[in-house]
Write a sequence for this structure.
């Protein structure tokens, strides 16, 4: 298939481009590089040995997006482009609503105009809000704790309405859990701007000595060791999930969790990182981070039974690959 990947220079998008190309698809990337670097496109080409057509374009700019659609004949769109920092979304809510909602609306409008009928959307486990884990696709969504999460829930709603109104259209909402790890080459990985918000890039930067110590946000949660539990998934497993999802699209709306179904606590992740990589990660326990929930993990059964997709890599693989990427920087 000829696939448009918006946000394809970013963390999940770049790994997905590699998997798509290795599965025989042709990839065109649209990214405004607001949270990524153009060199990542070269690295995708280096890993795959294939050319990637790249456009430095903002997906909120309808005439520019239209211009690219008029030059290509896309079979499907995977829409990753968006802002993703929870904390920043609280201080800059309008930027988040503008970028994430408008970007999605523009890409949908143009896809309708050009008759591109397959649309895969990057959603997030955050749409489940304060539900109890494991999260199942059929759960009633609860309000997200921050504007970022709200943009994901609103985009889901927009896409549901669009697919209802346009027969023959296929939309797949993929709700990701916590992607970590990197491509085994160590050439691409997560490259956060400034001080990382997420746990894994913070751990690797502490291990490398770029940051002094990890702050563990609370050890008084009702979990086995008191620290927060998440469902970490290797970014290459997540990338594979996109390949399968786009290849197996059906008419109408589909929703899948992409997680492992297993929870890991902050302390467990730190311990495995230290053991596998033979390096210490100094840490201190601090207050809980506002908006965090105790536990978040997937019921991953639907993606397995309907798509035949299952995450394969272990936490040991994830920490090894994250550390390899950090060391290469
Ligand atoms: P990322 O920031 O690495 O990638 C997003 C890419 O989109 C970046 O390259 C950025 O430059 C680009 N972008 C942003 N706004 C744009 C715009 N208006 N026009 C063109 N390009 C734009 O983030 P990621 O971790 O790869 O996440 C990809 C998607 O998955 C996002 O929509 C994110 O919300 C969603 N998601 C991520 C996670 C996670 O933990 N990483 C979890 C759930 C969902
Ligand atoms: N966390 C932490 N210290 C950090 C960053 C995160 O203790 O510097 C914890 C956080 O409280 C949560 C887990 O690590 O329990 C995963 O957080 P992350 O921000 O990576 O993902 P999210 O919770 O937003 O899904």
């Amino acid at each position: 298939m000829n696939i448009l990947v918006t946000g394809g220079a970013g963390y999940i998008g770049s790994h997905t481009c590699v998997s798509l190309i290795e599965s025989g698809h042709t990839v065109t990337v649209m990214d405004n590089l607001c949270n990524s670097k153009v060199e990542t496109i070269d690295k995708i080409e280096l890993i795959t040995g294939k050319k990637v057509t790249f456009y430095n374009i903002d997906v909120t700019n309808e005439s520019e997006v239209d211009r690219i659609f008029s030059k290509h004949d896309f079979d499907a769109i995977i829409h990753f482009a968006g802002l993703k920092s929870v904390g920043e979304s609280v201080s800059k809510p309008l930027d988040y609503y503008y970028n994430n909602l408008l970007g999605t609306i523009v890409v949908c409008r143009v896809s309708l105009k050009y008759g591109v009928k397959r649309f895969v959307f990057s959603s997030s486990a955050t749409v489940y809000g304060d539900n109890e884990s494991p999260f199942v696709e059929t759960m009633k969504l609860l309000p997200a704790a921050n504007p970022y999460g709200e943009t994901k829930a609103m985009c889901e709603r927009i896409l549901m309405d669009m697919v209802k109104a346009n027969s023959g259209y296929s939309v797949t909402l993929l709700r990701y859990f916590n992607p970590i790890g990197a491509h085994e080459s160590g050439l691409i990985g997560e490259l956060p701007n400034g001080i990382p918000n997420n746990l894994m890039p913070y751990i690797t930067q502490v291990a490398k000595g770029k940051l002094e110590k990890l702050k563990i946000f609370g050890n008084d949660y009702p979990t086995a060791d008191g620290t927060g539990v998440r469902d970490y998934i290797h970014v290459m497993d997540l990338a594979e999930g996109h390949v399968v999802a786009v290849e197996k699209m059906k008419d109408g709306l589909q929703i899948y969790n992409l997680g492992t179904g297993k929870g890991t606590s902050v302390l467990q992740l730190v311990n495995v990182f230290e053991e596998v990589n033979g390096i210490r990660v100094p840490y201190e326990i601090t207050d809980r981070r506002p908006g965090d929930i105790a536990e978040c993990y997937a019921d991953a059964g639907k993606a397995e039974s309907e798509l035949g997709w299952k995450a394969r890599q272990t936490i040991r693989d994830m920490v090894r690959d994250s550390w390899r990427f950090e060391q290469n920087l």
Remarks:
- Residues 93-113 form the longest helix (21 residues).
- The chain has a mean pLDDT of 96.
- The chain is about 40% helix and 20% strand.
